[in-house]
Amino acid sequence: MKNQNSYDRIAKFYDDVIGRSFEPAFFLKDLINKYSSNVTSVLELGCGTGGILEVLSRDYDVSGVDLSEEMLKIARRKNPNVSFSKQSIVDFKLDKKFDAVICVYDTINHLTKFSEWKKLFRNVYKHLNQSGIFLFDINTISKLDNLAYLSSFVEKFSENYLVIDVKKLGKNLYDWELKVFENIRNDEYRLHVENIKEVSFLIKRIKDELRKNFIIKKALTEESKRVSGNSDRVYFVCKKKI
Asked: What order do you get walking across the sheet with 83-86 strand by strand?
């Protein structure tokens, strides 16, 4: 996935950790249908192992972009008829335009400079058809601060363990240290470590930048509630300006 943060080291564990829940994909589909009635093609930026596209491909012509070759290998196995491209989500170049572009699972937070967010917004605009929609989510500053305040937390999946430790490195910059203890046999484990940087910015700053090329149709939480300073994850639904 995700620009300089590739997830290559833990790609094979990704689906087991995230799970094969299709609820996020159906949530996105509902948003797409609510804000545009004529979407036939969808591009996902930071598509990872292709779980979202696995669902959306039932109704749309879908494509995916990701920088991690290991993640894309899994995505291609799950979606043999989908077009995938190994590129940065910031400056990707494709030879077609789309009715909708999506970027979810806080993928955009992995871009640690706001100049990269701005470049991504402009690039999405170029790859959208007239009146196309751009749908993405972010981890808010509030959520990342809360995670950094907490102690490390552990999740068991199959016979393996995932340890997550989020630390604040500077103003709105955070490091996610992901440790996977892979069970080899009995009580023997192999350690896989991935450090992922995330950053977030004020909602107003994001909206101000988006309005240069998009009409913001809606900003909402996962529970479809009004966005506040305490919101954890915020979804933006934007329409390309004509």
From this structure: 83-86, 61-66, 41-45, 98-103, 128-139, 233-240, 214-221
> What pLDDT digit, counting tens, does each position of 212-241 carry?
999 999 999 877 778 887 889 999 999 999
Q: How far apart are CA 178 and CA 193, in angstroms?
A: 6
From the list 147, 144, 132, 121, the residue with the least C-alpha distance to 205 is 121
Question: Rounded to 10 degrees, what is the CA torsion of 145, 218, 89, 101?
Answer: 150
The pLDDT value given to residue 16: 84
The total number of structural domains in the chain stands at 2
Q: Model's pTM, two decimal places?
A: 0.93
Please give the Cα distance from 104 to 23 (Å, whole number).
13
Are 172 and 68 within one domain? no
Report how far residue 194's alpha carbon sits from residue 224's, in angstroms, rounded to the nearest whole number.
32
CA angle, corner 217, sides to 105 and 235, nearest 5? 15
Q: pLDDT band for 3, please (50, 70, 90 cuts).
A: very low
Kindly state the average pLDDT of the residues 98-112: 96
In a domain? residue 30: yes
The domain in which residue 96 lies consists of 8-139+202-240
Distance from first CA to last CA of the chain, Å, rounded?
31
In angstroms, the CA 63 to CA 112 distance is: 25
Question: Could you tell me the two tokens for 65?
Answer: 């972009």
Together in a domain, 228 and 157: no
